[in-house]
Amino acid sequence: MDIGLLADNLEILIALLAGVAVVAAIFVVSWPYFVRDHLTERMVQVTNENERIRVRERNRLNASTKQISLRSEPKRLYKLIVDRLNLAGTEDSETVRMLRMAGYRGEGPIIAYLAIRQLAPLGMMVLAALYVFVILRLDYPLFVNLGIVMAAAALGYYAPPLYVKNKITNRQSSIRGSWPDALDLLLICVESGMGIEGALRKVSTEIGTQSVELAEELALTTAELSYLQDRRKAYENFAARTGLDGVKGVVTSLIQSEKYGTALSQSLRVQAQENRDMRMNEAEKKAAALPPKLTVPMIVFFLPVLFAVIITPAVIQMMRV
């Protein structure tokens, strides 16, 4: 009888468990239909937060007591020369891009570059003619003296582009050397919960002791993120001003993160490692190119001294004999 009662209780327990399982299954299946979808609200909150950050950064920049301008006004002489010679329409996008990569922004550097490009050949030609025909009075045929003058004029014509390209090379070298460290700082700021604007502003203040050029570009990017309506344009401007492949890769990651909402920390970590490897490869290339560069100085300066040290005692002995 006890066994029959136990069997009846077991059947009741199994029925209760089956009922609970059926109710739980129905609850799990119907749960998505009763829970509200907060994705739309979260997207609206993110959009509003970005707008609040943009307004806050704009107010902060406007309220700054010390107004620092990255643009320079054109000088009156250069402006007069450009207007008189009608050179305003001669600049192309390549010239503007080169000047921006060299750190010159605004209308002033463009006008100054166009004016100097016209004044430098004339000035070099006048100075060369003065030295050749008046001061030095070289005793060469006339066509040789004229060739010297024309060579000086050609040097004056090609000197401004060479100066700008040299400035671009030095600027890119400074940015390339500090870019992996800046990415590490940016990764730390992003993983700590900071927004991209605040992270870029923080990195720009910290990286200034290592690379002023990179700090300037990051600060300008932060300002453009606050003012421009299209945030992608601010990132693209940053990549165009630097002209570095490592910066372009990070900019692509930032644009994808803004557009698709992908995780930024892992991408920044990978980009930082890649840029660090690129910096190491550049150092290895310079180290590998050092022995060939030392060949000529060794032949010119070391070998004659070595021969003199070796041969001099023999010469002295021969003179004594």
Q: Mean pLDDT, rounded to whole units?
A: 81
The total beta strand count reads 0
Class from secondary-structure proportions: mainly alpha
- Low-pLDDT regions: none
Portion in strands: under 5%
The helix content is: over 70%
**Overall spatial form:** elongated
Largest sheet: none
- Rg over CA atoms, rounded to whole Å, is 35 Å
> Termini, distance in Å?
139 Å
Write up this protein.
The chain has 321 residues and is mainly α. It has 2 domains: 3-34 and 75-172, no CATH class; 174-280. The protein is built from 12 helices and no strands. It has helices spanning 2-34, 39-62, 76-85, 93-101, 107-135, 142-191, 196-206, 212-227, 231-242, 245-260, 265-288, 290-320. Helix 6 (142-191) packs across helix 7, helix 6 runs antiparallel to helix 11 (265-288) and helix 8 runs antiparallel to helix 9. The longest helix is centred in the middle third of the chain and has 50 residues, at 142-191. The model has no long low-confidence stretch (mean pLDDT 81). It is a multi-pass membrane protein.
List strands and helices in order, with pairings.
Blueprint: H1 2-34, H2 39-62, H3 76-85, H4 93-101, H5 107-135, H6 142-191, H7 196-206, H8 212-227, H9 231-242, H10 245-260, H11 265-288, H12 290-320
Main location: membrane
Keywords: Cell membrane, Membrane, Transmembrane, Transmembrane helix
Transmembrane segments: 12-35, 110-136, 142-164, 294-316
